[in-house]
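Why does this matter for the project? Reviewers at the last site visit asked to see concrete outputs rather than summary tables. In response, this paragraph embeds two records directly. Each consists of the residue sequence and, immediately after it, the corresponding structure tokens. Nothing has been edited or filtered.
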Amino acid sequence: MNLRQLQQCTKNILLCFNNSRAIQIREISNTKCLRRSLEPVLEQNKSSSKEVLTHFEFHGQWPAEEQQLFIKDLRLHTDFITNEEETKLLEEIEPYMKRLHYEYDHWDDAIHGFRETERKQWYPHNRAVLERVRQTAFDGAIMPYVHILDLAAEGVIKPHVDSTRYCGNTIAGISLLSDCVMRLVRVDERKYLQGKAVEAPEVASTSAQNTADANDAYRNRPETTLENNFYVDVLLRRRSLYIMSHSSRYNFTHEILGNDVSQFQGQRVKKDRRISIICRNDP
């Protein structure tokens, strides 16, 4: 190899190195830009940037302001309770839950493969956990009865919005026994706003529509479409706490995906039997 060939070879090696370095810098820059765009809203709520980046999968074209508002109003705390605390909660609720049968024909058609109850009195160590939920998720008091929802491995929760007649602007749930994926889909505000059904301007009313009260149902089930072209999948880890309030509470349906479609960032998430302990504030 002569001198000219050696110089050209060296130049090519340096060029490849620089291109590779530029790609790495660009990827790092993109990640930093995403973090910077989320910093203002993450600073205002208790979800860390790591939890948002690793547990929220946004789909479609989200308006920037709406995405930031959603992150502010949907908070997630992984490992909110310890293994021991999970065991203590299960020890208290399992004896009663085992006496119930799983139901597959719910009166509002929102849940299949479930059993549920409410509980007011708790052992002191479990009451301490619920008090921690109250301090973390709510500004004031919570409703005295805590909702316990036991979902079978093959069970699903269909898209719905909890009625404002039965709970206020915040819902907080602890996930026991299993990971799962919760999907939140933006609903058409012309038809559904702040938990109350409203008629789209171009749709003529009927007598049935005029007499129907959407809030008679504990869980309102507006027609869910992807016409807004954006939704989000949230990975709810076992022993995590999710806090759904304001815009995420009213403007999105939420559902627990069944095992036939349950995946997150391209990886299957197998949902086994799952119990959620749900606290709410007054309407």
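We now turn to the second protein, recorded in exactly the same manner.
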Amino acid sequence: MDPLSITVSCVTLVTAVSRVTYSLTGFIREWRDASSDLRIISQELSSMQIVIGNLRNTFATKESTLPPNLKEQILGILKSCLQVVGGIEASLLKHANSRLGKGGYWALGGGKEDMAKYRSSLEAHKSALEITLELVSITISRDIKKDTTQILKEMAKLRQRLPIAQAQYRHSSPRWTPRKEMDNINRLTEIYQHEDEAYISGSNSDIEKSDTDIRTASNVSRPSTYQDYRSTAYAHTSTSIPYIQFSPYYHPQTDTSTHFPSTTVYLSAHTNTIHLGRYSKPRSQERNFVGFASRVVSRMHCDIWHKEGKWYIRDNKSLAGTWLNSERLSEAGRTSKPYRLRDGDVVQLGMDYHGGYDANGLEGYQDLKESWRHVRMFVHLGQH
């Protein structure tokens, strides 16, 4: 089934709901005895607009990969909603054209009973749409897990091939082996050779399932941090410097992530913790803070720290959530326990916020703004 048909149905239904909402407002002004019942119907229509808007955005941005039977179910619910909205509109016309007058038709002509019936149907269809929207979100999350699992498998295959490539490299260039290149190869051979029980994968069940043109301004002063700490290290010890690199990760099907430049943070001799949060000008000067220009990111969203050769991540009571390999670390407003962070993991901060509609219908729809997008990044861990 073509996703365009679902998008067209959403637009048609939103237009009809806006038209009926306008008629309801006029009727309430002229016949106040019906205001209490009709205001409830108007509120249900407004709630339905929000659900339809989120559903429309899912199918309008990209080619959907939802199962055909789920698409048919969504289209059927939208058609049923359109019939109910049409019935409400027809009943309002009867009120206007009745010989008994609006008040007489409402009290004696069965208008009140008709509206009660339509209200019940409207609530049922809205609940069905909300459940369907949850199924769509679950399906998209499952696709992200599958893609992440495939990436991990491909990286494991590359890790198995690295010893052979390293031997061929030495054989082809016996007199010239740059130390930096060989260190990179040695680090790659150690990817995923860990046994920590807190490792998060696509099948882990311990974690709960859950307007402006902006640019990321996470200007971490990498050269000065690196040079200061490096001079101390070479003067007193040969210990390497841990660092972490954040690079944008764009999902092929849900490419709505906030854009930001790759950022590398070298740990200094005075701190082993890096704070991730919403960008602000005063905090941009802090060497252990990485800011992202997105309103769904909390000011102190999460912490990442290095301890005894291992990296860890923790959510700091963020409202929009922190994800590690598609798994949410904690509920909204709750601090999570520490989770092990490994080279190649995918971290996501927040969820997309799509806004809603106003009383005029389509004119009130807010497209997904850059400043209301989530932040998804690929994490690279290393030693220099």
